[in-house]
Structure formats: structure tokens, C-alpha cells
């Protein structure tokens, strides 16, 4: 059986127009070519698709069953061709984006949607990881793009675009002794266990670590759970409280006398200079650059 796209298109058009001659006019072919294509299709399928007793061909019940599937099949063939064309013009076979766990509460899906709208057939993989691990994934090329906070020291291999600001704040459960204190000093912070989101590699020192005693976790969901259970204090994105009303009831933003307890950081889209990016990644970068210029 060797059925091609042209045969399916002719078959669909004959049913929709009601005759070989009308289908031929619509497709810009001679009637004999349409008739021969249908005859060959019937031979390939070993089915009678049209009864030819009268003046015009009448579709058989089998033809109507196949017709219902033909349009979707033709759409899928065209999508396959478009995807193949895109791949031949530099579209990556898949795009992996790593989102640092602090930013899972933000509208990071907006950036994924921009890519999906332009490249609907592209496979997109989204991974969450601590900040240090996200950067390492770019370096070892297991991810092509990363949404992450600005870094105190830039790696010479990275490039980035600033996207927006995010605020992170120190918090503790209302039952924690820090929450009950009217004036929290830096010394109080040093002596209290901190729940810190950090790399899975314990040799890498966590960022924003203040306490002498601390517990590590690789995501903010578990950090929230531990802080809520009064197992320590921690630093969390302020956006969490806007997205989760229960957390606002369980956790208190700490007021620290010795320094301003709000940390504003830029969120960056980051990629490696050493990685040859595909068309989708390049499209997103260019889209965001143009958006910044128009602000």
C-alpha cells in the first residue's frame, strides 16, 4: 500500500464537490487524472470508494468512514512537513528551560507560551532547580535557557537579558521565637536555624545564607513546609504570599533592626556563550530584547 498526500487530497475533494469533473476544476487537474487517482487508491486499499452507476460517483459507506479521518490526516501531514522544514532551518529537536525554584511562583509560563505560539510542534522541557544547579545545567548543556536571579559574580561563559525585579523577604512561622520578637537583631538571625534553598551539591555554599546552623533543601515547596512547621526561618519570594493566602496566615515577614529585610533582585533569562542555540531559543531571546527596547 503506497498512499500519498495528493491521493488523499483528491479523494477528499471528490467527496466534497460531488464529482470527478468538479474536483478536477477545483484542483486544477484534468478529470481523467482525478478518475485515475481514485481508481489507484481503490486498488491500493482493496476497497470500492465510489459507485459509478449513475452520472456522478456516489461515495460508499466505507468512503464516508475514511473521509472523516482524511482531513485530520492531511492536517497532520502538513504539520509534519512544517516541522521538518523548521528543523532543516535550525529549529532544535527540543528546548529545555530550567526555572530556579524561587521563581516557580511567578508567571514564568509567559515565556514558554511565547515559544509555543511560534513553534507549536516543538517539544519543550521545563525543569526546576536551585540557582547554582541551574547555572551548571547551562554550562554542561543539559539546558539551553534558564530563568534565574542575577548573580553576584558573572561566569564568563554566560549571557543574559534582564526581565523584571522580584522581591524576597525573611519569614518565620508565627510560633517561631523570631516572629514573637519586637526587635530582631542580626545576632538573633545568626543563632537561629535557617532553612535555605541550595544546590544539591553540598560543596557549593548557598547564597543568602546568614545563620551558623542551617538545613538545606532543593526547592521552595519543601522550604515553605519546613518553615511553616517552625523548623527554622528562611528567605522566600514575596510573590508566594500573593499566590498562596494560607502562607500569609502561617508565616510572618520578619522586621530586622540591623538591615532592610527586603532583597530586590533582577530576574534574568540566561544562556551559555558556548552553546549553539536553536531557532526557538534565539527567537525568544530576540523577542525579549525587542520588548525591552520598546518599554
TrEMBL record:
Residues 1-60 form the HTH lysR-type domain. Keywords: DNA-binding, Transcription, Transcription regulation. InterPro entries: LysR_HTH_N, LysR_subst-bd, WH-like_DNA-bd_sf, WH_DNA-bd_sf. Belongs to the LysR transcriptional regulatory family. This is Transcriptional regulator, LysR family. It comes from Acinetobacter radioresistens SK82.
